[in-house]
Amino acid sequence: MGFDVYEAQEEGNGGDSRVELLDAELTNKQDLSIDVGLGGGNSEVVFALKVGKDLDVPVLRVPETDTFVRRRDLPNFCRGKEFGDGSPFQMILNETLQTPRSQALIVDTFEGLEGPILNQIRSHCPVYAIGPLHAQLKTRRSSTPMSSNCFWKDDANCMPWLNTQPSRSVIYISFGSALKLTKDQLMELWHGIMNSGKRFLLVIRPGSIASKDCGEQIVAELVAATPERGYLVSWAAQEAVLAHQAIGAFLTHSGWSSTAESNIAGVPMICWPFSADQQIQSRFVGEVWKIGLDMKDTNDRVVVEKMIRELMDNRRDEFTERASLVAESANKAISKGGSSYRNFDLLIEATKTKGVKTSFGNGLSKN
């Protein structure tokens, strides 16, 4: 998603103050940059995938991640064969190398979640960690209602259904506003959910099934086949759903917005990543924060069923406790006096007093 360069200007006693925000696609803006989540811009880290055959080989050149990040956890464009000018790899590399030229880097994460990596980034340029940003907005504007922040219309009918379900008994399944599934992917997912025996709320967005697979017909058939323990919607107000007491797990594509919303709500995750930053975020969820399971590189109903049972039965207490601790840390960060709250105030003050040319990124595990 591109949002170009946004400028905010304020007239003050000392003249104009200005902050610039930019999108990752602006590689021609040589004085602006955006963080891609791997401190130091080590080009060799990703390039190794061009010649390496074993995706489980650990990545050893990135500070604070060398004990858990594997080649398969790096962004999916690293698995391609195109590394020249104009390639996604080269675009991201150029942006990373420009990051130290920024006067500051704004990231949608918080100290309690990614403190060690934030410290690594600070050796290259100042960092303002102000996340989870969606929740901080609500802290500063207490009247702001929960919303999906999306152009899809919410189906509010799922909320009364959730009200009738036992506490932490429902797995919520949604894959964001852009992802498309093939028929095979959807059917393997569906059978895994059915075989788990768990209550579920499944979002199947209009147009989210590859057109060649007759998506509308498939959805109609699934709606007809949905048992009383399940509910299908075309879209849901995700923040409100995740905050509901009936939700016990979240099966997600591991996009950063979804990850951040799940963190603030304290809901354990099953991560089924598809592209870009989703790969490494799913690894952080499973191996670093230990608030869920990583289901990358698979499309198997047996695995789906096993993951759901593992999260909601066998290790339920373990994951619930860990997710609650992360939620506590996140909410503390955005509360008045918390690290993200203070950083936000410091950022505003810096732009007022001297103007700060900044880069904006999501979590350092990147979105």
* Mean of pLDDT: 78
Q: Any idea of the CATH topology of the largest domain? A: Rossmann fold
What's the overall geometry? globular
CA-CA gap between termini: 11 Å
CATH superfamily of the largest domain: Glycogen Phosphorylase B
Radius of gyration: 21 Å
| Class per helix and strand makeup | alpha/beta
Count of discrete alpha- or pi-helical segments spanning 4 or more residues: 13
CATH class of the largest domain: Alpha Beta
Question: How many strands?
Answer: 11
Runs with pLDDT <50, length 5+?
Answer: 1-52
> Order of strands across the widest beta sheet?
7-6-5-8-9-10
Helical percent range? 25-40%
Task: Give a verbal description of the structure.
The strands form 2 sheets. A 6-stranded parallel sheet has the order 7-6-5-8-9-10, with helices on both faces. Strands 1-2-11-3-4 form a 5-stranded mixed sheet, with helices on both faces. The radius of gyration is 21 Å and the shape is globular. The longest helix has 19 residues, at 316-334. The protein has 2 domains: 6-137 and 335-354, no CATH class; 157-329, Glycogen Phosphorylase B (Rossmann fold, 3-Layer(aba) Sandwich). It is an alpha/beta fold and 367 residues long. Strand 6 (199-203), helix 7 (215-225) and strand 7 form a beta-alpha-beta unit. The model is unreliable at 1-52 (pLDDT under 50). Helix 6 packs parallel to helix 11 and helix 9 crosses helix 12 (316-334). 38% of the residues lie in helices and 14% in strands.
